[in-house]
Amino acid sequence: MIQLTDARRIIAAATKEAESQKQPMNIAVVDAGGNLLAFERMENAWMGSINIAINKAWTSRAFDIETKSLGELSQPEEQFYGIHASNGGKVMIFAGGVPIKKDGKVVGAIGVSGGLGKQDQAVAEAGAKAY
Question: What is the pTM for the complete model shown?
Answer without folding.
Answer: 0.96
